[in-house]
Design goal:
Largest interface: A-B, 69 and 69 residues
Order of helices and strands of chain A: HHHHHHHHHH
Shape of chain A: elongated
CATH class of the largest domain in chain A: Mainly Alpha
Helix content of chain A: over 70%
Number of strands of chain A: 0
Largest sheet of chain A: none
Oligomer: homodimer
CATH architecture of the largest domain in chain A: Orthogonal Bundle
Structural class of chain A: mainly alpha
Chain lengths: 219, 219
DNA sequence: GTCTATAGCTGGATAGAC
DNA sequence: GTCTATCCAGCTATAGAC
């Protein structure tokens, strides 16, 4: 019946924010089990007990962190005008592709946190949390592709969801394989995300196959 | 100076194999910190102490598991004839793409274990372990693509490593995003990996853009 | 809201019998 | 090679003063 505190949600206090930030970086680095409350308290500059004052449990803290990360991620992805104008949608798609990769690379902690959550798929509560933005995001992207097909600057005859999926897959995999790519022979593109983005987009648009027409044009 | 035991490597005993298998599945499920020696011992049907008899430490066990997974993975990927014959390389590339996805899906624990390792990139020892097969694998794949370009059934003008990367990225992301994809509106392809593979490959070959030539052909 | 102190338990790892 | 019994460090979480 008491009304003297507002636990768990709405971390208005300064301490709570420090906790959230410390927790995000540590959960992203070491995972849920690897990061201890002690670590988090120390990095946040608060006491262990204070964490349990603001958040009900370690899991509660983790969910709060995840929720904040997802919201942050969604905020970045949602920016930019809705693609109401089909005439501009071609530029928007390429722009999205590049900006999406930038967003992943600029927020590595948030990205890693969410990628971890996807990979675990044991924590059901976070799953549904993440699916919320993914569904919205993916649906919008599919819409852009379909619009491009209708406007004629993308060819028809393929499922727009396939291209949307491929765009995301390439960026996500670039992010997570980066440290390995940079040690791989022949993968020089791993050192310049800007030209990587442009070249991959071009490849996806033009295709890798020697469509007989291109031949004749050059011959 | 004693020669009465062969610790850590060459798990010839029955118990050691049970431990390795239990550990692989638990590490894949919960990660290094999430899986406890107690869990592993219980699932393997042995005592905690027996684990430390066969493996020097938890980390030693983890590395043994990872090594085994990588070897297993490499075994699968290495099978099939080397692409000595350029004339057949076009079929090989499409076949690789499909088989690669099958391998990922059929060995989900191994796949998850290695993906985790890639994502963590804090465990340096495993990093170099994994890079070994990745480098070999990737180099071979790039070779196939380049061969295709020289043979003429792939167009020139793009970095072969880009296509190799994209093929792997699409498959890996399909694997790890599968549980989410299946809840996503419009992503019906998530339920049939076979046709997914074919359609994506077609998209990558033909491209998504409306290359002006295709227009004229159909008109 | 924040702290110190501590409860209660589980983690990885070891000793030593069989 | 396998076990039981044990050590102790570290963990999450709570109690209660300020």
């Amino acid at each position: 019946m008491s009304m003297s505190r507002q636990p768990a949600r709405s971390p208005s206090a300064e301490g709570a924010l420090a906790i959230l930030e410390a927790a995000e970086s540590l959960f992203a680095e070491k995972g849920f089990d690897g990061a201890s409350i002690n670590d988090i308290a120390h990095r946040a500059g608060v006491s262990k007990a204070n964490i349990f004052h603001h958040f009900t449990s370690k899991k509660g803290l983790y969910l709060a962190v995840l929720k904040r990360a997802v919201a942050h991620s969604a905020g970045i992805l949602a920016k930019g005008p809705p693609p109401a104008d089909p005439a501009q949608s071609d530029r928007r798609l390429k722009q999205f592709f590049s900006e999406h990769l930038d967003a992943l690379l600029e927020q590595p902690e948030t990205t890693r946190l969410i990628l971890r959550e996807v990979l675990e798929n044991g924590s059901e509560s976070g799953q549904s949390l993440a699916e919320g933005i993914f569904a919205d995001y993916f649906t919008r992207l599919v819409g852009w592709v379909r619009m491009g097909q209708e406007a004629g600057w993308l060819r028809g005859g393929f499922d727009p969801a396939l291209l949307a999926f491929t765009l995301i897959a390439v960026n996500v995999h670039f992010f997570q394989a980066l440290p390995i790519l940079q040690h791989l022979p022949g993968a020089g593109f791993a050192f310049d995300s800007k030209t990587f983005s442009e070249q991959i987009f071009g490849l996806l648009m033009d295709g890798a196959g020697a469509s007989s027409n291109v031949w004749e044009e050059e011959a």
